[in-house]
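Today's session is about reading a structure prediction critically. Students often jump straight to the picture, but the first step is always the sequence itself: look for stretches that repeat, for charged clusters, for runs of hydrophobic residues. Only then move on to the predicted structure, which in these notes is written as discrete structure tokens rather than atom positions. Here is the chain we will use throughout the hour.
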Amino acid sequence: MKKKSFAVAYMRFSSEKQADGYSIEAQKEKIDEYAEKNHIDILEYFIDEAKKGSNDRREGFQKMKDYIEEEESLSYVLCHKRDRVFRSKRLISNFELFLEDFDIELVAVNQIYQSRKEKIIMESTEDMLAEFYLANLAEETMKGLMISAKQCLHNGGKPPIGYDVGKDKKYIINEAEANIVRELFEEYASGKSMDALLKHCQQKGYLTKWGKPFGKNSFNSILKNEKYRGVYVWNRRESRNSHGRCNHHRNKSDDQIIRVEGGIPRIVSDELFYKVQERMKKNKESAGRFTAKHEYLFSSKIFCGKCGHAYTGNTRTSGKGIPYTGYRCGERCRTNACSNREIERTHLEKYVLEKLKNHLFTKDGMVQIAKQLNVFQKGKQRNGEAELKLAKQRLSNVDRKINNVTNAITQGMFNESMQSKMTELEESKTAILEEIKELESSPEVIPEITPEQIKETLENFEDYMQNHTETAEVKAFIEQYIKRITVYPDYVEVTFVVTFPTVQKVFPALEITVIATRGEIMGRSRRIESFLNVASQHHLKRISTQIVLQERPY
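Below is the predicted structure for this chain, in token form.
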């Protein structure tokens, strides 16, 4: 009896109506039939429903990749057709290279060919046709959407608050929601702040079109939306890139946007709309002038320990007219949903930059740090030897594929897809050869790092802090040495990262976490021991300095 092999199966359809191909059930039936006929055991099935094949941002697909990396017994990934995995020649080639590292073959059970030469040519052709289908579908879809847009019809998605869509796909006013929109415009035009609008919506119990509480970002998008003065707008946002991502804050050029005055029912007057726009413009300009006086050094590094959102710079004036600059939880700013307090900017920055460096290392810790780094280097050397072996195996696989394509060409089966495949293989070979060259250049014997070298690195670190006071230089330091600052209700946790270049051109990263109470940071005479006495056992685990080695790319 033939020995059984093991596989995983992947199935996908791209539209909710499954109009682009077979249903999941039909795909599974074909895959199971092939597996049984060829003595293959399917260990797991991975499914993506109503997901496009133009990118890899699919939950089922990513779970399958994770499973492949953990399961060592696999020989195949089974799918119904190659376009079920990707409708992109580049992405499916990358996936097959990923599988090669695990010696796994991608098998499309409905595209089995008689010979190796036929397989090379036909698979390349199928991949190009799948990508052409997607590009053609997008083009035809855009044509249909353009026709609908010129008729001021709804083109998909959820309409903005204040509107519904009728059976004829025309926008109609939802009066209950439209009253909320009018209130927001009128309140803001009368001089109310965004905070006041937020409080107003919370008191009234107003919800967004999605049934969620309003946030400040919601107000910006509503108050700037031309639809509310009766202008039909379509195709405004920037298109997705080749990775399926787009910047929702960036608009297309005016010649690409369809804008029809009077194309949808009006909710607010032109006078009210432009009054709001003028006030928003003035507020933005004045805010820019005001905030330019303050540099929030930790704006990309500081987070709330209570809700996890980023802390952002916040400037306000106290009841006595005293200006106050601090860091405040973004969720608290946006919705008031988080109760974590803000923290004064100057004291925090001064403490981190001038005080906490004294807690980073002790003289007694130098020897232990050196030992950990040397253990890391030796482990990296062993990994390098394994990586070199795998790189040579990949080179052998690429050479074999190049020979196959060359043989097919010499037998008169040349086409453009084969030329493209040959180019990809040559580029892959060049990259692997460079990788092998670098791995082979690593020294056989690695000199050990001494405690004196550690001390020298830290002394340079302290000199840097004492001699560099310019904002740009301090920001460069922060980006390099501070990993994260987490603000809790009672204390602040700062994690530093110090890197040590090694002869293997990698950076072992030493993480040091230091805890300080808010009182310490504000300069009040409060010993940290008093905080430790009342801290929970969970917090106690976080107090001591932690040293964690990581690898960072050269």
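Discussion point for the tutorial: Residues 165 and 171 are 5 Å apart (CA to CA).
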